[in-house]
Amino acid sequence: MEKEPENTHLVIVNPNAGRRKGERDWDKISSLLRQEDIRFKAVFTDSPRHAIKIARSHIEMGYKKLIVVGGDGTMNEVVNGIFRQKRYPTPEISLGMITVGTGNDWGRMFSIPHDYAGAIATIKMENGFIQDAGVVRYFNGEDEEKRYFVNIAGIGFDALVVSKTNKLKESGKGGPLAYLKSILTSLVKYKYTRTTIKIDSKEISNNIFNISIGICKYNGGGMMQLPEAVPDDGLFDITVINKIRKHDVVLNLKRLYNGTINKHPLVDTYRGKSVYIESNPHIHLETDGESLGHSPFTFDIIPRSIRVLVGRTA
Questions:
Q1: Where are the domains of the chain?
Q2: d(CA 142, CA 62)
Q3: Is the CB of residue 103 less than 8 Å from the CB of residue 289?
């Protein structure tokens, strides 16, 4: 089995991230890595979920230092590769990020610079922080699947918005305003759903517009749906937006950006280690900006399980 020296980084590059910035800027990024004397092997993704396979196989070869060149979705795939490998305990693997995506919400939580030189300086500093991760079990038709995540899972309206946003990205129409545009277009047809939520021993049943469950604060390009989240407290933060009139969603968009969403009278917040959600009809799910399947869902926290290289913690 191939084993690379311990000081060699595996750089996983998504060439499609950031409307193909991953591809266009790779020469600049690789040059900066060499200038900082960071030894690396680069592997490019060529399809959805490919980064999961790349991370898993190379960790099993002996790589323990990983760098993601991409967006939050690429980071999510690499995290899933880390959890699916069998060679090392997950906190022994370090994970750095050079952001070329459009949202970059995970990096915002940890003050990872947007400029390439700053991101690489952060990686070289090796300021490690061990954060929590989550795992969700969900369904695609009759088949149960699972996904690990390190930022936020959105259920209901948010999952529809992410699905529309991803389609905009695929057509080359992504960008910082794509998420906001998708919110406004999704409001036209979206309806609330009768949903039962079990958080540890507590059960809530209500007409639900949206549920956010996560570890960090930001999603949607800077929105704070979980403004009080602590990334290493061993608990999910949960924000539930109950049945709300559509024009009230528009009027309260500013609350998603200034961190006051939890002050709205139709919004409830909780914390817990495990969450079970069922609904009729099914509602859909996204994690870290990746569109997945439908309810029922089972969430479990994995405390202090991913070592990330950060500027600082929020």
A1: 9-126, 134-302
A2: 36
A3: yes
Domain 9-126 fold is Rossmann fold (3.40.50)
Q: How many CA atoms lie within 13 A of 258 on its CB side?
A: 7
Cα gap 108→205, rounded to integer Å: 33
* Per-residue pLDDT reduced to its tens digit, 110-119: 999 999 999 9
Q: CATH classification of 134-302 is 2.60.40.1120, yes or no?
A: no
**Residue whose entry in the numeric block shows the structure tokens 């905009």:** 168
Contact between 90 and 115 (Cβ < 8 Å): no
Instruction: Give the percent of the chain with pLDDT over 90.
Output: 76
Cα gap 104→285, rounded to integer Å: 19
Residue 33 has which token pair?
């890595």
184 pLDDT band, cuts 50/70/90, is confident
Nearest to 15 by CA among 55, 48, 64, 58: 48
DSSP assignment of 175-221: STTHHHHHHHHHTTT---EEEEEEETTEEEEEEEEEEEEESSSEETT
Residues 6 or more apart whose CB falls under 8 angstroms from that of 193 comprise: 156, 207, 208, 279, 280, 281, 283
Give the Cα separation of 8 and 5 in Å (integer): 6
Rounded distance, CA 249 to CA 256, Å? 10
Q: How many CB atoms lie within 10 A of CB 155?
A: 29
253-304 pLDDT per residue, tens: 899 899 999 999 999 999 999 999 999 999 999 999 889 999 999 999 999 9
**Residues 141, 226, 173, 290: is their CA dihedral positive or negative?**
negative
Q: Report if pTM > 0.90.
A: yes
Residue 158 identity (one-letter amino acid):
D
Q: Which pLDDT score, from 0 to 100, does residue 1 have?
A: 43
The answer to whether 38 touches 65, Cβ cutoff 8 Å, is no
